[in-house]
Amino acid sequence: RSSYSCCYFVLPCCFFDFHGKYSRRQSKKTQYREYLDFVAQVGFVCGFHVEEDCLRIPSTKRVSFIGKSRSYPAAERALIDKQITQFINSRRRACAVATCDRRVGFNHKDHCDGLCKEAGSEPPEDETETAGTVWMPGFQPREKVEQVRNCASLPRDFVDEVVLNVANLLLNADPQKSCSDKQGENMNTWSQGESLSLKEVAEHLNKETLKKLKSEYGGLQTLLKNNHQVFEVLNGRVHIRDWRKEKPSKTKPEVKRRLSAEAFKTRLCWFFIHHPDGCSLPSEACPYAHGTEELR
Questions:
Q1: What's the alpha-carbon Rg for the chain, to the nearest Å?
Q2: pTM value > 0.70
Q3: Hey, which residues does 70 pair with through a beta bridge?
Q4: How far is CA 270 from CA 75, 81, 233, 291, in A?
Q5: 43 in a domain, yes or no?
Q6: Separation between Cα atoms, residue 279 and residue 214, nearest integer Å
Q7: Which of 59, 78, 97 is the last residue of a domain?
Q8: Key word Metal-binding present in the record (predicted)?
Q9: Into how many domains does the chain fold?
């Protein structure tokens, strides 16, 4: 409905109508096929020549629809728009009746009739669309450029500072602050620190940091999970990752040997630089570089 020149591609997946979950009407078809027919119907009602295609993707739901051309001249756009409005309102009434049936049950006919008449009544005047209305009342399309808000676009200096602050918080919460014997390279007393809940960690961060994290999806938890090398987040609690406890790869031994011989270390080991006990793994076993001389 945005313009006469608009084209569309849609890959139907979850079974939803305009105003709620899609309700089945034909038992002779599978739920998927019936829903596909409904999506195609939407395209026809909107005045498109609807084409169906099957994508070559690893999914059970791979049937798509393409609308590349209109089935009516541009002069009839107002008439088709009115037709679209009537179709949407009819689907709203159908959804209301289906909801009523599920809530009350088919055996309670008298009670259901009253509810369905109320739910299926004509929409209020301020919600009724006219031929000149392009979108439904209150509809807000997404922005043309979608912002990346998974903490990946945050400044590197800011992320490094948060990681260091949280790691120090966990290490300082460890009642047994023992360091390894550096001379004997004894790593048996390597300190993993304590675990804290996300709420407890957030309480120790300043307001400016929290404000910046709240603008991202998942906030603090997403940032910590992104820094997989340093942290492990399990059941809402934050732990410093101990790479000695990581499960060995299921790769075949000969393949593993070949990969390890060809592997290049492209990132510095955070623990080698920042942890008071250094890295829990020797240089040859750590997937990260112990010093710039190991970087490739």
A1: 29
A2: no
A3: 48
A4: 66, 60, 17, 10
A5: yes
A6: 32
A7: 97
A8: yes
A9: 2
Work out the end-to-end distance of the chain between its first and last CA atoms, rounded to an integer number of angstroms: 54
* Residues in the chain, overall count: 296
**Residue 231 neighbours by CB under 8 Å, 6+ apart:** 163, 166, 167, 224, 225, 238, 239, 240, 241
- Parent domain of 258: 156-172+192-285
Type of residue found at 213? L
- Residues 47-92 have pLDDT tens digits of 999 999 999 999 999 999 999 999 999 999 999 999 999 998 888 8
Report the largest interatomic distance among the alpha carbons of the chain, rounded to a whole angstrom: 86
Asked if residue 145 is part of any domain, the answer here is no
Q: pLDDT, tens digit, for every residue of 158-205?
A: 999 999 999 999 999 755 544 444 444 444 689 999 999 999 999 999
| pLDDT tens sequence across 68-79 | 999 999 999 999
d(CA 9, CA 48): 12
Chosen domain end from 74, 97, 120: 97
Q: Are 85 and 197 within one domain?
A: no
